[in-house]
Specification:
There is one protein chain. The chain folds into 2 domains: about 1-110 and about 270-280, Quinolinate phosphoribosyl transferase, N-terminal domain (Aldehyde Oxidoreductase, domain 3); about 115-265, Alpha-Beta Barrel (TIM Barrel), CATH 3.20.20.70. It starts with a helix and ends with a strand. The chain is built from 11 helices and 12 strands. By secondary structure, it is an alpha/beta fold. Strand 10 (about 235-240), helix 10 (about 250) and strand 11 form a beta-alpha-beta unit. The strands form 3 sheets. It has a 6-stranded parallel sheet. Strands 3-5-1-12 form a 4-stranded antiparallel sheet, covered by helices on one side. A two-stranded antiparallel sheet has the order 2-4.
Length: about 280
């Protein structure tokens, strides 16, 4: 994780700074010292202060970064999440990149937490998806976890997930599952198998194949209840498709084990956070 963070932070800083922060270089002497406060301007859940800290460290390892609120904690407008102190020029150069990470990840954590709280009276867990910004998946998924959600598969490599296009090409759910079983034997693999279903007949077919998870894709809630009754605890059940804060409670109350929500990471509203900088007195 450390190498991953170092790489993506370097890439973000290189993209932003390139040949230099010309405005700061023109206006602010290297000898001028400053302080900064990360001001929370909306209620939510803070995430990725650790990443923001590493951004400042890469720009100037003499910057003092003091975390005041831990990642994963709820915050309110007016809270100060962290403070920085050091060269004013370094603070200003690192500011936007640090805020870009912090605002996005806190936005993900905040939305995730809203979903989690809506279904807290049920056994269901909120899952993320692979609908993440390319290159930022581990950070996006960490933000989901900090918001109280559960990480689904990280990528294509750590779980079999048989979707409609796989089924179409294989000819049937049964054929697709058999191919995955054969692959497991060939590779001596024990990865879980999940299959996407569109109707109750497909649910029954997947159940007969003894998969680990059955996904109910775009099922109406009354149909979800029937599917959960058919499955009857023989495998885990995931609800997916067009799930939002208005209907997630009803979905959870059908008895499903997991609810995947792509919007957690593909439709992020950044948490409003600013860095207020002053000359050090």
């Amino acid at each position: 994780m450390e190498d991953y963070l170092k790489k993506i932070i370097k890439s973000a800083l290189d993209e932003d700074i390139q040949s230099g922060d010309v405005t700061t270089q023109a206006i602010i002497s290297q000898s001028v010292l400053g302080t900064g406060k990360f001001l929370i301007k909306a209620d939510g859940v803070i995430a990725s202060l650790n990443v923001a800290q590493k951004v400042f460290s890469q720009v100037d390892n003499k910057i003092d970064f003091k975390v005041l609120i831990q990642d994963g904690e709820k915050v309110k407008a007016g809270n100060i999440a962290a403070e920085v102190e050091g060269k004013a020029s370094s603070i200003l150069t690192a500011e936007r990149t640090a805020l870009n990470f912090l605002q996005r990840m806190s936005g993900i954590a905040t939305l995730t937490n809203k979903f989690v709280e809506e279904i807290s009276h049920t056994k269901a867990k909120i899952l993320d998806t692979r609908k993440t910004v390319p290159g930022l998946r581990l950070l996006d998924k960490e933000a989901v976890r900090l918001g109280g959600g559960t990480n689904h598969r990280i990528g294509l490599f750590d779980m079999f997930l048989i979707k409609d296009n796989h089924i179409e090409i294989a000819g049937s759910i049964t054929n697709a599952i058999k191919a995955c079983r054969d692959y497991q034997k060939k590779k001596n693999s024990n990865l879980k198998i999940e299959v996407e279903t569109k109707n109750l007949d497909e649910v029954k077919e997947a159940l007969d194949c003894n998969v680990d998870i059955i996904m109910l894709d775009n099922f109406k809630t009354d149909m979800m209840r029937k599917a959960v009754a058919i499955i009857n605890g023989k495998c885990k059940v995931e609800a997916s498709g067009n799930i939002n804060l208005e209907n997630v409670k009803e979905v959870a109350e059908t008895g499903v084990d997991f609810i995947s929500v792509g919007a957690l990471t593909h439709s992020v509203k950044a948490l409003d956070i600013s860095l207020e900088v002053e000359l050090r007195k």
